[in-house]
Amino acid sequence: MLRLPLKTLAVAACFAGLAGAAQAATVYKTVLSGANEVPPNASPATGDATIVVDGDLLTLTVNFSGLTAPATASHIHCCTTPSAGVATQLPSFVGFPNATSGTYNQTFDLTLASTYNPAFVTAQGDLTTARDALLSGIANGTAYLNIHTSNFPGGEIRGSFSAVPEPQAWALMIVGFGAAGAILRRRRAPAFA
Predict the structure, then answer these.
(1) Tens of pLDDT, residue by residue, the chain (193 residues)
(2) Based on C-alpha coordinates, what's the Rg of the chain?
(3) Cβ-count burial of 116 within 10 angstroms (0-12 exposed, 13-18 middle, 19+ buried)?
(4) Which domains does the chain have, with CATH numbers?
(5) Which intervals of the chain form a coiled coil (predicted)?
(6) Residues 172, 125: Cα–Cα separation, whole Å
């Protein structure tokens, strides 16, 4: 039976974890509230949104409740803070609920012009640059989701996206800590004759 040193196994596990993480989708989340609006408002509404970017596909999931009036618009603004132009479909994402509470889940192809606000694509120069700008804005925290209502036409609830650590990254970190601990315990163990 082949016996490899613990250090070799730890290095192999790290490389295996890195190879798996390279294939993973990137996840971003935000909490939606009136306090996040600019300027902040006293809306009792709350919500959350998740973006999963997997290659050229962007899956958006939004949960919201307690709006003071039915949603009149919902979209992602990008790429400056505190306020930015609308980057995605206008006035709302296709099929977004015109309600005070709801859930929305849709996958968008980032290579299609129909995913974007035409003015955003024009301002960026072309579709590829618009895609890159939107993804960069989501990744660096300068993109936010807004839900508008008739009571708050400038936006009732809002939230800026931030990255969520990938499960593979957590697994890799745990394996690394475990391997480091095992190596330290092995080095500290007294030698018995």
Answers:
(1) 445 455 544 444 444 444 444 457 999 999 999 999 999 999 999 999 999 999 999 999 999 999 999 999 999 999 988 889 999 999 999 999 999 999 999 999 999 999 999 999 999 999 999 999 999 999 999 999 999 999 999 999 999 999 998 655 545 555 666 655 555 566 665 656 5
(2) 22
(3) buried
(4) 24-178 (2.60.40)
(5) none
(6) 40
